[in-house]
Amino acid sequence: MTTGSRQDRDAAAQQQHQQHQQQHPHQPQRFVISFAGFNRPWAVWIAHRLEEHGHRVALQRWDPQSSPGLVQALDDLARSGSRVLLVLSERYFFAGTHSDEEWNTALRTVTDRHPDRFAAVCLTDDPLPSAVAVLEKTDLWGVDAYEAEYRVLRRLELCTDRIGADTGRRGPRFPNDPPEIWGRVPRRNPRFTGRNDVIGTLRAALTDAPPGASTVTLLGLSGVGKTQVATEYAYRFASEYDVVWWVPAEDRPTLRERLADLAPALGLPRGAGSYGEQIRAVQEALRRGSPYGRWLLVFDGCDNPDDLIDLLPSGAGDVIITSRNREWAARHTSLVEVPLYARPESVTFIRRRARRLTADEADQLAEALEDYPLALDQTAGWLADSPLTVGDYLALLRRRLDSREAVTVSDDYPLPFPTALAILLNNVRENFPDALALLRLFVFFAPGPVPLRLLREFPAEDVPEELAGLINDQIRWNAALNKLVQFSVVRLEYSDLAVEEGGGGLETVQLHRMVHGIVRENLSEEEAEPLARAVRQVLAAADPGRPSDARLWPRYAELVPHLDTSGVLTSSNPRIQNFLLHCLRYLILAGEYRTCLRLSEETDQIWRAALGEDHPKVRELSYQYGNALRNLGLFRRAETLTKTVADRLTEERGNRDLESLRATSAYGGVLLCIAKFEPAREIFEHCLATYRELLGEDDTTTLDAQNNLAATYRLLGRYQDAYDLDLDTLRRRERVLRSLHISTLASGIACAMGLRLMGRYREAQTRQEQGVKLNTQVLGLGHPQTLRAEHNLGQCLRRSGDIPGAGLRLRTVWERATRVFGVDYPWTLMVASDYATYLREYGDVGEARRISEDVVRGYQSQLGLAHPYSIGTVGNLGLVLRAQGERAEALSLAEQALVGMRGALGDRHPWTLGCALNATGHRNITGRLEDALSLSRETLRTAEQVLGPDHPMTLSAQIALAADLRAVREDAEAGTHEDAGIKGLTRTLGPQHVHTIAAKQQTRPYWDFEPQP
């Protein structure tokens, strides 16, 4: 029977345990490491080093607020039975609201109860409560990894003869060693408070995600602290990553530019002066995990998922998105909500921000401001240096709420916030006029990063009078900026480039969206106009002037986000209007069609009202507007717009005027989209002949017209004529524009497509493989022209017989097009159609049917039932039904496609011949043998005349005719055609090509309709 008190028993057991440890320092021991969340990297590293020495370690984040008191919280650590190592810093003691005296009492009490159970390491040289001395702490700040490990082992009275030992288990990086790549992560907030539950949930969501899917969205109100949580996570877990990269994601151009900046940091090639190759290289490097497998990317402020979804990297790393948009839940990311502060967090934060406030005063302030983090930050920052008492401030706040004197603001914002901000701004207005002037200037840039480089290049003649002294006086400028930082109105961001690369200094000012909106809404028109005008002049002065030069696209990407906010769209200044037109042209060339359409729609209404329908600027705008409509599949609107402009100019100036020709060409491009091929041919033949006469054969405008005519010939089935023109255009563009110009690259794709359509598959593949590399290098992986090049390469691979390579390429392009543009985008439908035909033959027939049906619905809805693309894809669906055994339904669709294509394009178009080839097969297997034979003879005869005897479609028609002859017992004639067809296929495609082998095996050929770009 055991006697004595529990306390006596604990003390005896503890003494026995300590004696055992001292006598056996090499034996495994158990430890509990207690740490503030802020210092987690140190706790994890110490735990790993102790485990490498064979000891067992448990980590316990210090949270005294979850216990009745300090003594109880520390007592609970000791009762674990393990030795307790405290990782001390000022954050450990600031985790609650306890005074130094309370800490001193608690430390003395628990060390008396549990002698030698507690030890400590210290990470700071700041003053700590005096009773820390009883812990006999050892200092780790300012030492290297070897010395730190030595000091930990010595303090814990453990063996030190295996320092640096490694069992091969990969561990965290030493906390004083930063990640290999640390990219523009905001500075760590020394006042960051609480949020441990949110960070814990975020960490669990990332670590528990399946491989390649570690993407989490931090969701919450504006100003609730999403960016702060993501920043704190990056620092807290930095030791577990090789790469940490921060991407501002409020708009797509900035997002793409910042993501591309990661390429040189990873040691990847920069490529032709643009960020195109860099984006592709970054995504591939992250996917492979080479050169770094442990990476974290943070996309901050992405409220439009469509801007980011195609750029999200895959691989073994982690992705964090901050957003206000709950739609991310449907985009294959986990959501972690960031709520308002809990009251203890609010009180702790306020007392760190304004040390003069008591706990009761902090609680009253938190109550009044509804625990809203941004309001607490700004208000406490002001009260820290203000003589105003909390009681007086709360009375002022109540008066303004009751009288609605607060600034005007959206209902989306918690009511106390604008009121609190109004009080703060009144203080700034009365005491810091320079800071107020600077803030008012900033709000005429877009919310988010304000590029200070642009302000440093402010044209002297455009500086508003009230800002002239401030902008020209660096001391006043810095003082005003620092005051805004002090009040948490703005945040400074510095370049992480090396000084020799132009970095090492202040780069942007980050202005919160809520502050931006409230300040902007409460400026009078008289106050706003000179500031907006000044910012517009700054932006126009930064216009690179050459939107067709891909090397300059990063600079345009920096300017475009500020067009709306600065009033560029409504400006009547011709210089500003020209700048806007350059930006719209850049957006079209860069493939940012939706952004271009939005800006064009808004500008069109404004300019037509102000300038009139016939103004040259309105006409110039119509070209980019029409391009955006056409590229997004809004063909009827594009037709109406472009025809109106073309008709008006032709009537006024005649059909040989350069501006009339340009407008007519734009209209012709839309006619191609709606399958009015012959009218388009007439337009482009006239334009090309006239341009050659007026401008010469090598003028870039002439070459554009020649490119358009070649595309028309291709759609008309005149493949040789199209190829001849494309090849001539390519050679001239290489000479005039050089090989890496976007138009030259487009001609390369056209030539490869022409070779493929003429049946010269190997030549087409060789040319297109090089074209994919160049387009990716110059334009980037997600650019529409790069996707077009990849798609054509997939088709070349399939026709050349590389079936696995074709399938992989086509699926990749289809998935990327769907993510980037959406399922109903014209180009996505084209790729989906081709991928479905691949699946029907070599993959999942069920998936092929689903995709094919979606494509038919998409084309019929977008283009109508009589468009060749709607007709051709109905024929493709018929082939899928035949493969699934639904012969009658398949025959019906095949006959429907044949009739439709004859009506749309005539009997001699290659697409009509393809539909006929398929119809013969459907007739044959449904027993209509004579009908099949008759159509086969007709199809072969026409194909020989239109395409030539050695074209793959002609040879397929010959093999099909042989099959129909065999079906009616005409074996001799069947053998003649079959031998001729096999010899032709062997000569043209090679003896091992899939089509040649299929012909030898008497497998009936088919034809896949391919919509063309």
Topology diagram in text:
Layout (H helix, E strand, L loop, with lengths): L5 H18 L6 E6 L4 H13 L3 E6 L8 H9 L4 E6 L1 H4 L6 H14 L4 E5 L15 E2 L5 H11 L25 E3 L12 H13 L6 E5 L6 H11 L6 E6 L3 H9 L1 H4 L10 H13 L6 E6 L4 H4 L9 E6 L10 E4 L5 H11 L5 H10 L4 H11 L6 H14 L12 H16 L1 H10 L5 E4 H5 L8 H7 L2 H13 L3 E5 L11 E6 L1 H9 L3 H17 L11 H7 L3 H4 L7 H16 L3 H19 L4 H16 L3 H19 L4 H16 L3 H19 L4 H16 L3 H18 L5 H16 L3 H19 L4 H17 L2 H19 L4 H17 L2 H19 L4 H16 L3 H19 L4 H16 L3 H18 L5 H16 L3 H19 L4 H7 L13
Parallel strand pairs: 1-2, 1-3, 3-4, 4-5, 6-8, 7-10, 7-11, 8-9, 9-10
Antiparallel strand pairs: 12-14, 13-14
Task: Give a quick summary of the entry.
Helix content is 61%, strand content 7%.
Report on this structure:
With 1013 residues, the chain is α/β, with parallel strands linked by helices. It has a six-stranded parallel sheet, with helices on both faces. A five-stranded parallel sheet has the order 2-1-3-4-5. Strands 12-14-13 form a three-stranded antiparallel sheet. Helix 3 (70-78) runs parallel beside helix 5 (100-113). Mean pLDDT is 85; it is low at 1-14, 401-415 and 497-505.
Q: Could you name the key traits of this structure?
A:
single chain, 1013 residues, alpha/beta, six-stranded parallel β-sheet, five-stranded parallel β-sheet, 46 helices, 14 strands, 7% strand, globular, disordered N terminus
